């Protein structure tokens, strides 16, 4: 896996302990690019430490309880439990804004499983991890996804919301890029994003994305029909 100027081939290229950034609703996948606006002091410190080291940060969602799903409010100061799976990213671009913020782009390396949280004196959280080493390889099942069904679901979603897309770029994208890009940009909730992250392989992720999109479309159509009655 080539990310920026770095190449990640084996587990030896991945640190055992990483700083993690718990962010609800954010999805980073291997090869994907996630822009972030960093302004909290603890995360500014985390980014500065990463930039001076191996530039690696673990994106992860706080674990969502069923009764929290409808609320966007989350007390980060209480150190909510973390999801079991996240994704490592390398900082490939960064810039200071002049008003105390840092803008970064994280490019996905591989997913990881949290083994344990490491207690430290830093204001941000760190975890001991086990990387998904298969993510460092080329996706072997990229040719097996149902590209037609994926594009049809995406097209229907755009149509329902009166949105447009750059179909020339979409038609040129490879299957792996297409599946991961659509998963990351999808406006789904935290639970759905986590399901896409934890999908066993690219084919499963594509099928999950299609299923979630079709369920959302069905709900929108049912809601519309009920309003007409």
Automatic annotation (TrEMBL):
Residues 18-217 form the Lon N-terminal domain. SMART domains: LON. InterPro entries: Lon_prtase_N. PROSITE patterns: LON_N. It holds the Pfam family LON_substr_bdg. This is LON peptidase substrate-binding domain-containing protein.
